[in-house]
Amino acid sequence: MTNSARNMYALSIDQCVDLIASIGKKRTVIVEGPMGTGKTTGIKHGLKKKFPDHIYVEFACTDKDIQDLSAPKFMQKLEGMVSDYVSFVPNEELGVHHGKPIILNFDEIAKALEPVKKAVRRVMLERMINTLQLHPDSIVYGTTNLAQEGLGDMFQAHQRNAVIMVQSRQPTTEEYLDYGINNGFDPSLLGFVKDTPALAMTFLDFKDPEDNIYGHDPRKASSGSFWTNRSGEIASDVLKLRHTMDDTTLTQALMGTVGDRCAMDLMAFVKLADQMPKRDDILNDPKNAKIPTSASAVVMVVFRSLTGMDKKYIDPFMEYLVRLDQEAQGMFANGVRNPKYHAQQVVMTNGKFTEWAMKNNYMFSADKK
């Protein structure tokens, strides 16, 4: 299959989870994907949700050598044996000692030393670690980066031929916003993501590497920081603490997180925060709380409200929401409709929200899960 075809059929994190859940007990799936896109964490959370009784085990392949997989244990001869002998006890990180169903991820498997790749091959093929058999309900898979990224990810032909190699894709802007809303990201960061479609692209999407101004591109020399979904989350943590630092310190910290160009553009969004009403302003006086003059600041108000929604805030926010334009109101509604939205039940069972939904022809059903 050509690289262009693999890119076209690349899977979302949720699709990778579904594939591993379907076949992972018998066959090993290796997920190759762009750096910093949530492969390890996203698949881990998805599988743990599907298999809550399994023990999750992550074997970090990049810091292992062959001797790290098992250690010798001296065994005395028993009746009928001709000598003492040595057995091998597996590393705790492999999880076989539990004797229970496990989810075993060989993280960064394609960067592992060649002896480690050879040693874990039996685990991936036969679900055996030395002489020990994994529980039959155990799931084995691996995650690693794309070879094209130039990070040293490599498999020999016979290694690839023994597993199912799939390519994951960069999350879309909407997927990243959903994740950020449900994980408390800074609203300035979320507003910047929504307004900057290039952040949802990788070097594979750019014909000319010079057009890739935010992300890593192995086709051009660069030693600086750059944007990924992972570094974006780090930038959100920095932005949440901006009240503790001056603008110069904040800008330098962001440059060292997402790169110079990205940090400068992000700081422009941070400046918009002055236009936003405080949460307490909306909570205490929703009919008179400030309405931002810029569309980007309005977006940040909506994201902040989705992220921090609770039973105390929903009533006054609905009074404030109707003062915003229709696009902002629709953006809030679409955020609530997402099945993964953490406060969906709080919003959808609120009388003011249901009244607004009926007036605006929005059809909802509260999530009963």
Please give a quick description of this structure.
By secondary structure, the protein is α/β, with parallel strands linked by helices.
Kindly describe this structure.
- The protein is of the alpha/beta class and 369 residues long.
- The protein folds into 2 domains: 3-167, P-loop containing nucleotide triphosphate hydrolases (Rossmann fold), CATH 3.40.50.300; 173-359, no CATH class.
- It contains 16 helices and 9 strands.
- The chain has helices at residues 3-8, 13-23, 39-50, 114-126, 157-161, 173-182, 187-195, 229-240, 247-258, 260-271, 279-284, 295-307, 311-321, 326-337, 344-348, 351-359; strands spanning 29-33, 55-60, 70-75, 85-90, 102-107, 128-129, 132-133, 139-145, 164-167.
- The strands form 3 sheets. Strands 2-5-8-1-9 form a 5-stranded parallel beta sheet, with helices on one face. A two-stranded antiparallel sheet has the order 3-4.
- A hairpin with a 2-residue loop joins strand 6 and strand 7 (132-133).
- It starts with a helix and ends in a 10-residue tail after the last helix.
- The relative contact order is 0.10.
